[in-house]
Structure formats: C-alpha cells, structure tokens
C-alpha cells in the first residue's frame, strides 16, 4: 500500500477553529483523511465550516477536484464541541489555539486524557516549546511542533520542531502526514521562535518602530520590502493577516526568552489595546471594513 493511501486510513483532529485551525482541517480533509475540527464555541465551528465550504467550492471551480471528490471529502469532515468523542480514535491531534502557553498546557492535559496512547500530539505554534508541552503528558516522545503558515491551503511549507524527548519515529510519522497533504518540511531542534518566527518577528517589530518614529507611511514601508527585498508581502500586510494580537504574543514570548531585541514596539501594543487586530476585526494597520461590506 502506498504511503498516501495508508495515511488516508488515519484520522486527524484539530483543536481550535480559528483562522489556522480551519485551514489545517481543510488541507487534511482535502487529502482524503477523516478529519474533525474541535472548538468549545459553536459560533467558531459555524464560521469554520463556512470558510472550509468556500475553499472546497473554490477548488472545484478551479478544476483541482471533481464534484464527487468534494462530496466525499466533505463527508469525511466533522465539526464538534465534543472533545471526548472526536479524540477517542484519532491518530494525530493538532492543537491550533492562540499563542498562550497556559491555554496550550490546559489543552494538552485534556488531549492526553482523551486520546489513544499511540496518538501523536502536534502543536501549531510559531514560537513555543514542544518540550514543555510534552512534559505535562504521559507521551513526551510523541509530542512535536508543526508550524503551519497562513493561508494553509496555499503555503507549501511546514516547520517541524522536535522537542528534547521527541522520538525519531514521531518525526518520521509527522513528515509522512505533511507529504500526504502536499507540504514541504524542514526538521529543526526546538529553540524559542524556531527559524521563521525569530526573523519575521524582528522584521515586523522593526516596521512598527519605524512607523512610530515617522520614518514613512505603512504603504511605503510595505512597498519598500516588497520591491526592494522581494518579499511577497510587506510586514504590515503580513501582520494584519496573521493578527496583530498574535504578533504581539509572539514578541512577548520571545522577549522573555531571548532578550531585549524582541521588546514589542509600544505602537504595536497600542494597536492591540485598541482592538485593531487586523483583517479578522476589519481594521489593523490598514482598514478592511469597506472590503468586507
């Protein structure tokens, strides 16, 4: 049996139906795997289903899947608030809750109580420690970080970070899952911020310092990065996409772990305090309210 066919017999559950969680659920379901999207809020699941339905329809219209495939793959996908049922027979659990270590620890405790002993636990963190999360479970060798990128269905890369106790068997299995959903990977040893977030956080934070100092308008800073350094998105466009609250939480964690160079720009803190979190609230550095109407 081919690797992809074998993995299609596996079941996956994603905890957290936010922007990342729903994107991760879509790519696993679209690869033909039995997939559950779990959240404590019914409203989050409703929004998640709406977005996943849109992605399936878009894929159908572009000729990437047939109508039969779309129906089959949607039927493989469930949305639930019932953790116990969704985790009972799952092979891979992906945690995709906000970047808050206390919240993640609580989620991992529940995962450990509900999931089968051989289930692999992956955290979709961009900065935090799979070693710490693994330490509160009875399976630290089966805990790893799978850092997906937004938008999940378009970004071809997953940054895999192994903790101190993560086994090579777990690494190989997670790489197999990644290949099955069409992603390229790298495997790194855990360190705060991994590779991508350490660099991205510095760039995004420096952009806010420049905006705070009046160096240039946001549009000019973004344009300079895109045309001068060939970035696909400017730092403010990216920040608004991932969420300025997420960016701030990452910086606070990196500042605590790695020191002064990651101290968040005061202006970024002001934006978050004002509720200007980016696309998800209709306004961040840029105003998206007209585009949403």
Protein described:
This protein has 293 residues and is α/β, with parallel strands linked by helices. It has 14 helices and 8 strands. The chain has helices spanning 3-7, 19-30, 42-61, 67-75, 83-87, 101-114, 130-135, 168-180, 196-212, 218-228, 235-242, 244-258, 266-273, 289-292; strands at 11-15, 34-38, 77-80, 92-95, 120-123, 143-147, 157-162, 184-189. It has an 8-stranded mixed beta sheet, sandwiched between helices. Helix 2 (19-30) packs across helix 3, helix 9 (196-212) packs across helix 11 and helix 9 (196-212) packs across helix 12 (244-258). It is globular. The model has no long low-confidence stretch (mean pLDDT 93). Pathway: Lipid metabolism; butanoate metabolism. Keywords: NAD, Oxidoreductase. This is 3-hydroxyacyl-CoA dehydrogenase. NAD(+) binds at residues 16-21, 39, 99, 104, 126, 150, 280.
Write the layout of secondary structure elements.
Layout: H1 3-7, E1 11-15, H2 19-30, E2 34-38, H3 42-61, H4 67-75, E3 77-80, H5 83-87, E4 92-95, H6 101-114, E5 120-123, H7 130-135, E6 143-147, E7 157-162, H8 168-180, E8 184-189, H9 196-212, H10 218-228, H11 235-242, H12 244-258, H13 266-273, H14 289-292
Parallel strand pairs: 1-2, 1-4, 2-3, 4-5, 5-6, 7-8
Antiparallel strand pairs: 6-7
Helix pairs in contact: 2-3, 9-11, 9-12
């Amino acid at each position: 049996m081919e690797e992809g066919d074998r993995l299609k017999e596996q079941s996956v559950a994603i905890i957290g139906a936010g922007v990342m969680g729903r994107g991760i659920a879509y790519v696993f379901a679209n690869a033909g795997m039995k997939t559950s999207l779990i959240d404590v809020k019914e409203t989050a699941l409703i929004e998640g289903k709406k977005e996943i339905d849109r992605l399936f329809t878009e894929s159908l219209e572009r000729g990437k899947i047939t109508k039969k495939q779309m129906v089959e793959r949607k039927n493989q996908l469930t949305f639930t608030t019932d953790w116990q049922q969704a985790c009972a027979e799952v092979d891979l659990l992906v945690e995709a809750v906000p970047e808050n270590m206390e919240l993640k620890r609580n989620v991992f405790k529940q995962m450990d109580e509900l999931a089968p002993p051989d289930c692999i636990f992956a955290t979709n963190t961009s900065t935090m420690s799979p070693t710490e999360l693994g330490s509160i479970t009875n399976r630290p060798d089966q805990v790893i970080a799978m850092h997906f990128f937004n938008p999940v269905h378009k970004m071809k890369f997953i940054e895999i970070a192994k903790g101190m106790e993560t086994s090579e068997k777990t690494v190989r299995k997670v790489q197999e899952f990644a290949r099955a959903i069409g992603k390229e990977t790298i495997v790194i040893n855990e360190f705060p911020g991994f590779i991508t977030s350490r660099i991205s956080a510095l760039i995004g934070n420096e952009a806010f310092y420049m905006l705070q100092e009046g160096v240039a308008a946001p549009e000019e800073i973004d344009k300079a990065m895109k045309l001068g350094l060939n970035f696909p998105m400017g730092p403010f466009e990216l920040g608004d996409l991932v969420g300025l609250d997420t960016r701030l939480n990452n910086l606070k964690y990196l500042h605590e772990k790695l020191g002064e160079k990651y101290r968040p720009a005061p202006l970024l803190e002001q934006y978050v305090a004002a509720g200007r979190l980016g696309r998800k609230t209709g306004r961040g550095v840029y105003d998206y309210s007209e585009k949403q109407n």
